[in-house]
Amino acid sequence: MIEVHGLAKSFAGHRVLTGVDLRVGPGEMLALLGPNGAGKTTVVRILSTLLKADAGRAAVLGFDVARQAARVRRSIGLTGQFSAVDKLLTGRENLVLMAKLHHLGRGAKARADELLEQFDLTEAADRPAKTYSGGMFRRLDLAASLITAPPVLFLDEPTTGLDPRSRTGMWEAIRQLLAGGTTILLTTQYLEEADQLADRIAVLDGGRVIAEGSADQLKAKVGDERAELSFADTAATERAYAVLAGEDVLRGDGLSVRIGGVRELRLLLEKLDRAGLEPVALRMKKPTLDDVFLSLTGEKAGAA
């Protein structure tokens, strides 16, 4: 559905993309993660025909984004970082206007009503959009991008600035689109969002894809689970750290030890027991996308 080969783009001599390769299959969601300035939005703008690449090739539904831009635009929906909704119009008026711009004619009102119901906006349909909450506003913006029921949808940080409850509502709306077979390319600054929604994740850094796979596959690259151990006091923590010398152990308020499985955990606890040490708390921690992001890009997740 989406194919990208060797995509390159520079702005004022600064290279933003240096050879990006991507592929998104039918009904799949690919999430693009990366630090600020990694080129996530630039990729979306090129694929949605808003920007021309300097080099490389990109196609959506087999249509070349440079040579067949009109065909591409008829096949996609786009929800960008900045809303296309007119705040002075009502929710219904916004959707009817978009439907008419897409030449739906007499079917414009029916399509608007269908989307208002789909995105739980029927009760607010005749209120000016400026009175909507952040979550309602973004749902209306997403609905506007779906007027023609496009098979491919680009979501460029669709939940930025939303409170957790509104973000969860948007996630549910996106899940419904995926269940209906829509192919989605998502950029997000929320690692949990990519973890929850995406079939695959591509990490952009330095203008190219440096890692790609499912969330579990990327987490596996960071390493095994870690046992988080807490002790009664600082002295006990220091003694435990000395006992475990030679292990893959990190020291903080407690100790964090890499564990390859149940057998290694048992041996670790036996080693502490022989030294007369017993943790007051034990928690197993699997690698997270935050760990992946830091490992791959050298930046914390908040920079995504």
From TrEMBL:
Q: Name one GO molecular function term.
A: ATP binding
**SUPFAM superfamilies from the UniProt entry:** P-loop containing nucleoside triphosphate hydrolases
Q: Which Pfam family, any one, appears in the UniProt record?
A: ABC_tran
Domain of life, source organism: Bacteria
Task: Kindly give the InterPro entries that the UniProt entry links to this protein.
Answer: AAA+_ATPase (IPR003593), ABC_transporter-like_ATP-bd (IPR003439), ABC_transporter-like_CS (IPR017871), ABC_transporter_ATP-binding (IPR050763), P-loop_NTPase (IPR027417)
Localization, per the record, is:
Cell membrane
Q: Which residues form the ABC transporter domain?
A: 2-231
Assigned GO CC terms: plasma membrane
| PANTHER family noted in UniProt | ABC TRANSPORTER ATP-BINDING PROTEIN, DOXORUBICIN RESISTANCE ATP-BINDING PROTEIN DRRA
Protein's recorded name: ABC transporter
